[in-house]
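Internal QA ticket QA-208
Title: Verify multi-chain structure generation after dependency bump
Assignee: T.L.

Test input:
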Amino acid sequence: MSVVTRFAPSPTGFLHLGGARTALFNWLFAKRYGGKFLLRIEDTDRVRSTDDAITQILNGLKWLGIEWDGDPILQHSRANRHREVVSFLMDSGRAYKCYCTASELEEMREKARKQGNPVRYDGTWRDKDPQDAPPGISPVVRFKALIEGETIIDDGVQGKISISNKQVDDMVLLRADGSPTYMLSVVVDDHDMGITDAIRGDDHLTNTARQTQLFKALAWETPKFSHIPLIHGSDGSKLSKRHGSVELGFYEKMGILPEAMCNYLLRLGWSHGDDELISQEQAIKWFSLDGIGKSPSRFDLDKLINMNGHYIRSSDHSKILDECYRLLCLKWGKEAVDENKDKFIYLRSELIQKSNTIIQIIESIDFIFEKKPISYDDKALKILTNEAKILLNKIANEFLECKDWSEEHIEEIVRSFVKKENIKLGNIAQPIRSALTGTNTSPGIFSIIFVLGRSEVIKRISDAVKK
RNA sequence: GACCCCUUCGUCUAGCGGUUAGGACAUCGCCCUUUCACGGCGGAAACACGGGUUCGAGUCCCGUAGGGGUCACCA
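Actual output:
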């Protein structure tokens, strides 16, 4: 039987790092075995689900390069099928109506907590005669779970796990308004979609016992589940909005490449010996369940950024350039960018070589676009001493007389100036840098002088000297 | 609280009974150097603890501690 996996996000929030990794693993697993990867939107909670979230999830997956087979399935559209399964369960005596009110349930839990018992539904309506149903209350439908024995889960990552059936209570299948719950829908949909393997977060592990019982009650085959440990924040706590950086779009905005993100996510919880840089093609060849670790891992932004640097340097430069152009336009406006495009093109190799993120590239050419007169930061100001200004005046004259405005010739001028003045290159390079960029860091000094052009250079130097 | 899972450098991890416990990120030092980086070289840095099993344990078993997850008419 060929492999069918799925990613089943709930559109109650955005696609975050954990979800992205789950999607990646399922996708990789399907590719590895030549199977299909399906997408199912778990929107049975009509109140909390939003279209925005769906769009964002889809975009996030596309950005990562994860393509699903067929159209995404919207779970709520299958409600009738879910209800049909419940009536089968009712007929076969594996489900029943429960008329407990919310306050009764709360009381029940409170009592169990006080007595130190597991907090579960106590089965009040399990064997009651439906004739006793109180008037005016619309019931929920509960699954009649097994009371004795234990449920064995053969997990692809965690191995064999047994959970006592005493731990599993009679879960709600249909809400009072007749809508199906998640617990029912996953089971029915996984079966109907022909899912053979599903990789999902650890947080579903104990739910699996409930779902397994449902599969059995329906006489359906259970997919092979593999529960992967969760990703934690850098402080070791559960990844949450508190970390401010769980959303995938956050990383796109900071100039992380999707390839780097995939590679990083892949290495978080999965390994293939000492391999670190793993292309998508290679990952598809290597991916398997036994490379997945059992312990939770922390998210490390530094490592992601470093990995991103490798991808920036090794990927197709024209692709990087396109992305830079897009972001540059966003930042400075298309007109300004087009006007200065050749400057950026000239500096591109150096920039790509030394940057770890797209944003770093963009920021290192801020000086090109700064409005004149440019502003100087503290470090630049510190460099612009009186002695430095004297040197700047002198070198400005040299530039004025320069006949051949090429980077090579500019370097000649500066180097012979250094010799003449008996100073170190740094003594003049840093003041020039400050004058031209308003900061103390920039691309190579000769290339920025060349790129800015003679009149601009003269102008900026004279502005700086007047400071 | 009950149940389930986890535990190797600061972080991600390799290791699948015999290793000087390896790699990567971060960190420190040196080199390169006009700045910031990139790159190169080198250093420091880990088997949570306690019992077993075994000739031999990071590797197997049992406890303890710590961490995580689940206990909804959320998914």
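Spot checks passed. The domain at 78-228 of chain A is CATH 3.40.50.620 (Rossmann fold).
Status: verified.
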